[in-house]
């Protein structure tokens, strides 16, 4: 699907900025501003999985940690959730 790491990174970071819910747009903008330079291939895969989750579900998982599915307990999701607290 992706030819190289930089192409994958560019597409995923672009998609992360246009979610549909303003709160998620702001949160993902903070995330990309903070972490985009340090993301590795695994981080991009995790971020890509997060982007596949419907907006309202993702927002609820971020706001209410007890509702978060086990498969989302990864480094990228924790970084995103921690940005919400700042």
Would you give an account of this structure?
The chain has 86 residues and is an all-alpha fold. It has a single domain, classed as Flavinator of succinate dehydrogenase (DNA polymerase, domain 1, Orthogonal Bundle), CATH 1.10.150. The chain has five helices and no strands. The chain has helices at 5-16, 22-35, 41-51, 55-63, 75-84. Helix 1 runs parallel beside helix 3 and helix 2 packs across helix 5. The chain is globular, with a radius of gyration of 12 Å. The N and C termini lie far apart (35 Å). 17% of the residues are buried.
How do the helices and strands line up, and which of them pair or pack?
Layout (H helix, E strand, L loop, with lengths): L4 H12 L5 H14 L5 H11 L3 H9 L11 H10 L2
Helix pairs in contact: 1-3, 2-5
């Amino acid at each position: 699907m992706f030819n190289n790491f930089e192409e994958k990174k560019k597409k995923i970071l672009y998609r992360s900025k246009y979610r549909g819910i303003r709160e998620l747009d702001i949160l993902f903008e903070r995330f990309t501003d903070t972490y985009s330079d340090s993301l590795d291939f695994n981080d991009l895969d995790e971020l890509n999985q997060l982007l596949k989750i419907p907006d309202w579900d993702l927002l609820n998982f971020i706001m209410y940690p007890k509702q978060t599915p086990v498969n989302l307990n990864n480094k990228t999701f924790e970084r995103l959730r921690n940005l919400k607290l700042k």
